[in-house]
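Hello Y.,

Per our agreement to keep a running log of every chain we model this quarter, I'm adding this entry. I've kept the format consistent with earlier entries: sequence first, then predicted structure.
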Amino acid sequence: MRPRIVVPNLEDSEWLRREYSTRSAQEIATDCGVHRGTVLNRLRHFGIPTRPKGWGGFAGQPKPKEQRARMSAARRAYWEAHPDREEFKEKISQTKRARAQYPGIRRGYMIIGVPGRGLMAAHRFIMEQMLGRELLESEVVHHRDGNRLNNAPDNLELVSASEHSSHHHAGRARDDLGRYI
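Predicted structure for the entry above:
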């Protein structure tokens, strides 16, 4: 068994609580010469609630006005530099509206909970109901109109992986090695 390395500051719960209220676990770990996980273990040992990694700020301390202004300026500069920004903004808006309407969305597909089977893509479940059997892993459900959220039975088609690929790559040119250009 490895010997336990004792870091005096990490044995003092009040010091650790005080430091963690204004600093991150990584900053404390760096100062103490230990791994971030060691600091998190000591926090849990003392019953001090931890924050998720990448957490954005301390409770009750909003970002300073200067930082918010810099962030806004950077966003404005980005959008001004991209001529297709209106088209992109519209696509983002459509995605946000769809996520608000269907909170269970992964990679553009609606996800539903099926009793006894867990989470699955809604279009696969609907196709299974239409066929009266479970789908094989090799079977692919294609959305005819290309809208991944349109799970109407007349919009769904059962195809093989190669047929599905040909639907999406029809008319695309290939190079000498047969790769899509």
